[in-house]
Design a protein that fits this description.
homodimer; 377 residues; alpha/beta; Aspartate Aminotransferase, domain 2; 2 domains; 13 helices
């Protein structure tokens, strides 16, 4: 729409009207039943998104605050194996190094995680494993189940960044032995940016450290979360909770299975177009990792400037993402998370296709039919 | 209005329609000129509210996150004198104890801070002083200028919680030698809850510690804040920034001097009614401390149950605050911060007066005339 950019990024994502409308409400007291009900409604649906019976707490802060809470409350002083194959894996490694003795189990960005090296690190005494489930910087979906199995075998805690998978792709925290899982509000949940939710296992609680941060002290969130009505320990970002309650109501209405199927279909449509254009996917996947179902990372064709490609798309009212850090100019990324449907995907693919042709990429044939066929299935 | 409670609390406060409307905007990319402009607009007005030329950063989190950021970035390992005469002073003391060697300089809640004991603590080597400017738990305004003078004399850093004074009452960070000052969005700024802003002096920057938290690492906020367009290091709560930009636009339109005068008039009107009712103010003030100009704390008349008083007021659609912790049932508090004007004050005083009479408090004469006279001046 005019004066609105269509954000096809790996977050933030377009927020449905009724979710934004929820923020218009006049201020309410956050120590009372109305707020407590909204909080509880969010948590009820989030448990389903996480695939867990564990308690879930909502922090007023970004996904990074949730990641720090996980490591600071349960990993301080621990030997940590930080799985890295992209930017957010590096962030978890950095946080691990602030609080514990974290060593990166490195793979090149966008290549499969090194499970043998992880096994060795665990043999070597790692007490916590951190992993990004859906690594948006590289468009790869990492094997949470396999990593969780290894971690549990060695009795290590498993911290999983599910910031961009929870609510969009299949996440099974309990089945996968995830001890602390994190999601951000502005990704697959299709709510505004500003909240993180954290699901914590009983095993993790048994290992909570004494020297905890204050604002991110999860023991305080647990205590307040168990009050009736539910509360947060410090003043919450009330409008964002009200928005998230509406966003989770939409998730409940759609149903998790249907929502996951929709996300998979959208990203499959993007991949179909990429293939028809003769371009290459950026990630290298193996039997246990996969292409992300919420963001597609594509190798930039030779000789095309990032600014030319994304600039053309932007002039058509659509924002897609470039590469981060050393991948700047080497890849482009199309997000397909949250509330987006066929119209947004088709518009984006048409704009990207036009930009590729305009940039003189040879052999770009129309990929819209292939994409539409997937969407129509 | 129907279905809306009038919140006359020491925050959260009613949020003007145009501020809430700003949140309705479709999601925008937080790495771009639109967000950067909104952030810069907020900061421009906040500097005026703080009375500072120092840089100001906005954290997506509550005032408590801002308080922790101040202490964690500049006070870790330091000897800290924590001035306490209410609940939030205690909170700063607790945070000080998590990061440094904090000792409380205690006064009873609602009594003047002990400046002699502070001088002794500084003589004894305290390197940081923490103080709550407007202690809402007790309705007292603490002497920031005097505390700042003492701290500077001994070359100690001065951290001031201005969560409930900045934007409503006079705050002069630079003149008062405040090194780190904090404000919350949902108080005098009349924006929704969920943001904290922090003003940091060059003196503080010279003492930044190496072992900093991650999400609250102020060096990261400084680095991102100096980019053009301005950014935050991690995903910000975008709708709350847009709301705060609108709230600060309102502050600019009103003008700080007029805004301070209005807050003083509103609280003076409340005090006039309290006096006419024959009730007593809770705080004991001296030559350098004063009654808060943003929240009025009143002793609960003998024999009146908190639930009876506030319950009656609530049935009339208005929420006022009770006492916290050991003051539960012993005081009640009327907030007058943010956007409130004469109608809200008169409605609240009429409801409280009715509740007092209904509860059988003897000798309650009509205080509305006295209040209206102040408002009409």
């Amino acid at each position: 729409m005019e004066n609105e950019r269509l954000l096809m990024l790996p977050g933030p994502v377009p927020v449905p009207e009724r979710v934004r409308q929820a923020m218009m409400r006049q201020a309410i007291n956050h120590r009372g039943p109305e707020f407590g009900t909204a909080y509880a409604e969010c948590v009820g649906v989030l448990k389903e998104c996480f695939g867990t019976k564990n308690e879930v707490y909502i922090i007023s802060g970004s996904g990074t605050a949730g990641m720090e809470a996980a490591v600071a409350n349960f990993g301080r002083g621990k030997k940590i194996a930080s799985m890295v194959n992209g930017k957010f894996g590096e962030r978890l490694r950095d946080i691990g190094q602030r609080y514990g003795d974290a060593t990166a189990v490195d793979s090149a960005w966008g290549t499969p995680l090194d499970l043998e090296a992880l096994a060795a690190a665990l043999e070597d005494g790692a007490e916590m494993v951190t992993m990004v489930h859906n690594e948006t910087s590289a468009g790869i979906l990492n094997p949470a189940k396999e990593v969780g199995k290894l971690a549990r075998k060695h009795d290590a805690l498993f911290v999983m960044d599910g910031v961009t998978s929870v609510g969009g792709d299949e996440v099974l925290v309990d089945d996968w032995n995830v001890d602390v899982a994190i999601v951000g509000s502005q990704k697959c949940l299709a709510a505004p940016a500003g909240l993180a939710a954290v699901a914590v296992s009983e095993r993790a609680w048994e290992q909570i450290v004494d020297d905890r941060p204050y604002y991110l002290d999860l023991a305080a969130y647990r205590k307040s979360g168990r009050k009736s009505p539910m509360e947060t320990p410090y003043t919450p970002a009330v409008p964002l909770f009200l928005a998230l309650a509406e966003a989770t109501a939409i998730i409940r209405e759609e149903g998790m299975a249907a929502r996951i199927a929709r996300h998979r279909k959208m990203s499959a449509a993007v991949r179909a177009a990429v293939s028809a254009w003769g371009l290459s996917m950026f990630p290298q996947i193996d039997a246990v990792s996969a292409y992300s179902n919420t963001v597609t990372a594509v190798k930039m064709p030779d000789g095309v400037a990032d600014s030319a490609l994304r600039g053309t798309v932007k002039r058509l009212g659509i924002e897609i993402a470039g590469g981060q850090d050393h991948l700047k100019g080497r890849i482009f990324r199309i997000g397909s998370m949250g509330a987006v449907g066929a119209p947004e995907i088709l518009a984006t693919l048409a704009a990207v296709q036009y930009a590729l042709k305009k940039a003189g990429v040879p052999g770009v044939t129309c990929g819209l039919g292939a994409a539409a066929e997937v969407l129509d299935a």
